[in-house]
Write the structure tokens for this entry.
Amino acid sequence: MCPQAIDPADTAAPFVGRHIGSNDADVAVMLKELGLASVSELLDAAIPTGIRLDRELSLPDPLSETAAQTRLKKL
């Protein structure tokens, strides 16, 4: 499965307001503070090679918050 973005039109507005992600400037400051050149370098430093997967995960397509809530209510 290839990474797939969720359609913003299908995303519940309340979720968007609650989500605070890192922007490029925040990431750059963090990497500089850590003395690293990239997020890949950060992951290499943080995740031991012995526990890394060497394959893509087989995951279903992503769901919007509304679709996930609907599915969970059916369980």
